[in-house]
Amino acid sequence: MAQCPNMLEDLKSCYSENEEYASAIDHLSLNQKSFYDTNYDPLHENRVDKPVSPNPYENSEESNFTLEDSSDSSAVVLTSAHGEVLKKRRLSLNQTMSNEDLEAIANDSEEEIIEPWSVPYSFQSNLKFKYQRSIKKGAVITDAMHQSLIRESNGQHLKAMHVVDRKHEVKFDIDGYVSTATRIRPVTLKISKTQLYVCAQEEGQPVLLKEMPETPRVITGNDVNLVFFWEIQRNHNFFRSAANTDLFIATKMTGPVHMAKTLPSMLDFQIS
């Protein structure tokens, strides 16, 4: 004779299994960090009274670092999970990147993003820059080898060298300009207490010291080579020529301060 199944025992068994499963889920949820975390990063706590611009990469599902290395440049590139370029950082001479440096690149909301130029630039005489304000007076500029900038004996060029007597160091006044053509800060570099301005030349040629009768209120036409885009990446300063945006103010161990694209010239500077 067939035995009738005990429905009560089956129900008890199902209840017991479900209870164990629910208990396990509860335990997991208590030990797992919530997706909607209510904790705030200390960086945000320190900036509650400062405006914070939105980061396009803060909410990306995943980001990756790659190294772009070509004949004329090297850069670390942060991309989103969908391949969108979020941020670039140009590498300077002998610069190494640790995991901490890469994390800082991703999380630094104030770091300037290096954007590609939308159109090719070649000695742009059609740009217009208007004087805005004095940014820094009496600045000392040194290169990646801690060489100071001094005037050459001919008085028309600059060179980088280690100096014992600091009175030989050239001091610069940095003036800021504005232009609708770019959001990167345009500046001029003038030797303090003179009217001599740093003037960009073609690749490989020494920068000139050009005398102007007074502080230019509007710069356009052939004088655009007086303007440089001041790009700051952490503690490294770069001066990109507004007349030819492929070129930067650069130094070497020997020879004058000149215009260059990349190594072996040193493109980054310290300003004090």
Automatic annotation (TrEMBL):
Keyword Glycoprotein: yes
Region (Disordered): 41-71
Cellular compartment(s): Cytoplasm; Secreted
Keywords for the protein's UniProt record, in alphabetical order: Cytokine, Cytoplasm, Glycoprotein, Inflammatory response, Mitogen, Phosphoprotein, Pyrogen, Secreted
Compositional bias of kind Polar residues: 56-71
Family recorded in the similarity comment: Belongs to the IL-1 family.
Protein name: Interleukin-1
Gene: IL1A
